[in-house]
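Workshop exercise sheet. Pairs work together: one partner reads the sequence aloud, the other fills in the structure field after running the prediction. Swap roles for the next sheet.
Pair: D.N. / O.F.
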Amino acid sequence: MLKNEVGALILRITLGIIFFIHGYVKFQGGIENTVGWFQSIGLPGFMAYAVALIELIGGILLVIGFGTRIVSALFIVIMLGATIKVKWAVGFLGNGQMAGYELDLAFLVISVFLVINGSNLFSLSHSLFNKQKSSDISL
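Structure field:
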């Protein structure tokens, strides 16, 4: 169904833009600050680089529709880590000083949807690797 593919496209592009911006800001603000923050919460500093790169590159890949399921699976890992390690203690809506995990949960659910369903509409992966003509797509 075309309307399902349009919905998946909207989710894919929106999630891609959001994660790209989050990754970009980590580098723009000085990745060393993010490394220090990761260390302050008990995570190895190198993980800041991994998370920022996954967010930045993964965001771009989602927007263009390349490796959607793999990138979304990586986003699931990031969102689970952020929720459990950082946000769980402040609760669903936060504590007035820090936001809760409600937005992280929404990003997690969108990522799960994309892992399960993929998103072929205007997708580079679909254009490169699908053997059917685009007019033969059964949505």
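Discussion prompt: The radius of gyration is 17 Å. What would you look at next?
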